[in-house]
Amino acid sequence: MTNNPQQELKDLQPENEFFIGFDSDGCVFDTMEIKQKECFCPNLIKYYGLQNVSKYARETWEFVNLYSKTRGINRFLAVIEAIKLLGERPEVKARGTEMPDITPLIKWTETESKLGNPTLAEYVKTADSKTMDMIYEWSLEVNRTVEGMVFGIAPFPFVTDTLKKIQGKADALVVSQTPVEALEREWKENNIDSFVRVIAGQEYGTKTEHLALAAKGKYADDKILMIGDAPGDLKAARKNDIMFYPINPGHEEKSWERFYKEALDKFFEGSYAGDYEKKLVEQFNNYLPELPPWK
């Protein structure tokens, strides 16, 4: 990663006719469950003093980050959504547990697009906010926990085959809201980092920005594809008017097999857009609910 990550994406020039963006957590790697359940949530309970309602905090965090339309959102936006939902729960109110004031965090996320530790570190130097100091410490501890917990996880079947198949035809980019350090470690550990031009994480901005800076206007719109497992990936594709291929949560292996054996050829042949993509996206949209089960 350079000192100006977004400039790195702007400077990318096509080497092939096609472009494919790959989300990482939950899409290329089966890392969503272990990261959210073993790294993010325990630290949220610890740093936010939610021990009294840990059962409900865990259920809420997992809904926001794994089992709903907000699956895969940036960690700081996830804290906002989870605290809001948790505070509304009657079980939590009955126990008299007060939710932390996240107003400073909300304001920061509304004015900063590169929602990552580097920008947060600069912000807390002058913000004089205990709330933001704590969220920064939480985020650092999450990264430390991930580094010590998440390793030895191979890509889903057919991912490496896919990366090899697109060589010489499509430029590839990792499009993720995971910190770059973790992404680089996971891709290098599995010897697949050489298949992508850049590994773009949260420090590079939003997924929408990744695609806009790296691909939009450099390739024909019908030759740009985003692959992801979360509604946010679909949203990023649609905001850029490009195509989307879904990796369905819980059915990742079948999704990758279908992409490798069928959808990728359609993309290269120019027959992916239209009814074929529409059917896949309709199926994908039915996998995750908007409302939590307790509502």
SSE arrangement:
Blueprint: H1 5-11, E1 18-22, H2 32-47, H3 54-65, H4 75-88, H5 90-94, H6 103-111, H7 117-127, H8 130-149, H9 159-165, E2 170-175, H10 180-189, E3 198-200, H11 207-214, E4 224-228, H12 231-239, E5 243-246, H13 252-269, H14 275-285
Helix pairs in contact: 1-11, 2-3, 2-8, 3-4, 7-8, 9-13, 11-12
What general outline do the C-alpha atoms trace?
A: globular
Radius of gyration: 19 Å
Class derived from helix and strand content: alpha/beta
**SSE series:** HEHHHHHHHHEHEHEHEHH
Q: Which strands sit side by side, in order, in the main sheet?
A: 3-2-1-4-5
How would you name the CATH homologous superfamily of the largest domain? HAD superfamily/HAD-like
Helix content: 40-55%
Strand percentage, roughly? 5-15%
Low-confidence stretches are none
